[in-house]
Design goal:
It is a single chain. The chain has one domain. It has five helices and two strands. The chain has helices spanning 3-13, 36-46, 62-65, 67-87, 89-96; strands at residues 21-26, 50-56. It has a two-stranded parallel ribbon. Helix 2 (36-46) links the parallel strand 1 (21-26) and strand 2.
């Protein structure tokens, strides 16, 4: 699937998603094109809870290129989610329901 079609499909399917979402972005990368920033900003409008973390240069399998970097980004995102949940008690209640 070309990257524009990939983003179009995401934009159609994701509006109802309420949980935090992590996008690990490689620059340059294999999945996204020169319009990456445009598409990511469109996704941010649909998913305000989208958190974008920069990986740096990478190929298609970022977890194989640099597993430590991916783990660091995921852990950073999880800490950020935890801080938001603690600061927003109603968010924690919705997740528990």
């Amino acid at each position: 699937m070309e990257s524009a079609a990939f983003f179009d499909e995401l934009e159609r399917q994701l509006p109802g998603l309420k949980c935090s979402v992590l996008w690990i972005k490689a620059s340059p990368g294999a999945v996204v094109s020169k319009n990456t920033e445009h598409h990511l900003q469109g996704l941010k409008k649909i998913l305000p809870q989208l958190i974008i973390k920069d990986f740096g240069p990478g190929l298609h399998f970022l977890q194989e290129d640099n597993p430590e970097r991916v783990a660091d980004l995921v852990m950073e995102w999880m800490r950020q989610c935890r801080r938001v949940a603690k600061a927003t008690p109603s968010l924690a209640l919705r997740r528990a329901a």
